[in-house]
């Protein structure tokens, strides 16, 4: 499909398709190196491809791919939180968005399976150690919200 567009551009400009392709690749590289839109490109790659693969996994009969993409989204969520809080500092790291793109691709590419490696090595041991505490806090706040919801529901009935 991309070759079709390269062919159209080459035909309209009278240039060799290889030259057109190389110029387009150079423009994309410059955009990444100097940060013009690099954040958007990194986020698109980190969200759209995995989302598409997740949709496919949901529709497949295998549960292996479900686990792979759930693991990706867990690690992606942790990374996004760190990225948001550290953004002020991280944007000053040279080629940050190239590094971010490479990291996100490391997480989801089948031959690296980085999300699973990070999950098993770092996240799972922390989860196993603290999950009871985390669940207790979650239950506490779930109880509070259900009490508040019941109060609001009762107040709504009184208002009728």
TrEMBL record:
Keyword Cell wall biogenesis/degradation tagged:
no
Q: Which GO terms describe its cellular component?
A: membrane
Residue intervals passing through the bilayer? 23-49, 95-112
Location(s) in or outside the cell: Membrane
Q: Look up keyword Acyltransferase and say if it applies.
A: no
| Family annotation (PANTHER family) | HVA22-LIKE PROTEINS (PTHR12300), RECEPTOR EXPRESSION-ENHANCING PROTEIN (PTHR12300:SF161)
Under what name is this protein listed? Answer: Receptor expression-enhancing protein
Q: What is its main location?
A: membrane
Q: How does it sit in the membrane?
A: Multi-pass membrane protein
Per UniProt, the keywords (alphabetical) are: Membrane, Transmembrane, Transmembrane helix
Q: Which Pfam families match?
A: TB2_DP1_HVA22 (PF03134)
What family does this chain come from, according to its entry? Belongs to the DP1 family.
């Amino acid at each position: 499909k991309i070759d079709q567009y390269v062919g159209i551009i080459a035909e309209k400009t009278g240039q060799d398709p290889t030259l057109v392709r190389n110029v387009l690749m150079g423009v994309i590289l410059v955009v990444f190196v100097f940060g013009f839109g690099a954040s958007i490109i990194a986020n698109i790659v980190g969200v759209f491809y995995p989302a598409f693969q997740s949709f496919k996994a949901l529709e497949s009969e295998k549960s292996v791919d479900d686990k792979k993409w759930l693991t990706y989204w867990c690690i992606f969520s942790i990374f996004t939180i760190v990225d948001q809080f550290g953004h002020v500092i991280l944007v000053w790291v040279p080629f940050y968005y190239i590094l971010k793109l490479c990291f996100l691709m490391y997480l989801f590419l089948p031959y690296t399976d980085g999300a699973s490696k990070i999950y098993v090595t770092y996240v799972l041991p922390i989860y196993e150690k603290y999950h009871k505490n985390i669940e207790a806090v979650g239950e506490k706040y779930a109880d509070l919200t259900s009490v508040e919801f019941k109060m609001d529901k009762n107040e709504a009935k009184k208002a009728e």
